[in-house]
Amino acid sequence: MGLFCNGFSLFVVVCSMAVAAASGSFYQDFDLTWGDRRAKIFNGGQLLSLSLDKVSGSGFQSKKEYLFGCLLKDQHMTRSTFEFLGNLSGDPYILHTNVFTQGKGNREQQFYLWFDPTRNFHTYSIIWKPQHIIFLVDNIPIRVFKNAESIGVPFPKSQPMRIYSSLWNADDWATRGGLVKTDWTKAPFTAYYRNFRASACTWSYGASSCGCPVFQRFL
C-alpha cells in the first residue's frame, strides 16, 4: 500500500508509536491543523490519533517553535523527518529520513526496521544540536547528520522550527515507486501517538530559552 505518514509513520491498518514515560499533554502542546475531525485528542490529552480515508488525511503541529533540542515521540522536527513507507505484506518497513535546510532537502537515507511498527508503540527521536542531528529508534542511533558547513554543506542552525506530523496518501511514489496502490477497502487508516516529551530550546519573541541536559552519551 502507498499511504504515507509524514514525519512519523505509515502502516497498513494502524500506525502505532510512542516514547519515554514522562510526557506532556497533546491539548497543551499541539494544535490539530487539518483533516476535518480526522485528527483527535483523547484520554485526557495523553493520546492523539490521525486518520486517513479516500477523501482526506489529517495532521497536527506543535504550538511552540524550537531552536535545537532533544525531542521524543513519533515526530517531525527541524525539517528533519522520519517517514514510514508502505510495504507489501511480510516485507520489512522502510524508514525514510531527510534533512531540509535553506529550502532544500536531497539528503535522504533509508533504513529497514528490525520490527513491525504496526504491532506496538516504539520511540522515534531526534537530537538537534549545532554540531549534528541524530535520528534514533528505540534510543538506538541510526543516522548522524554532521554539521559540515566548513566544507560548504548547509546545516539548520538559525531558523526555529515546529514539530509536524501528517497522514496522507502517497501511492503515486511511496511504495515500490508507486507500483503498489492503496487498498481503500481497509480505510480508514489510523495512526496513534502518545508520550510526547521535549527537552529543547523554546523560541519566543526572537530569542531562545534553553535547557537540554538529556542524552549526554550522544552529545
UniProtKB/TrEMBL annotation:
One of its GO terms (molecular function) is hydrolase activity, hydrolyzing O-glycosyl compounds. The keyword Cell membrane does not apply. This is GH16 domain-containing protein. GO terms for biological process: carbohydrate metabolic process. Residues 20-193 form the GH16 domain. Keywords: Glycosidase, Hydrolase, Signal. Residues 1-24 form the signal peptide. It comes from Salix udensis. It comes from the Eukaryota. InterPro entries: Beta-glucanase-like (IPR000757), Beta-glucanase/XTH (IPR044791), ConA-like_dom_sf (IPR013320).
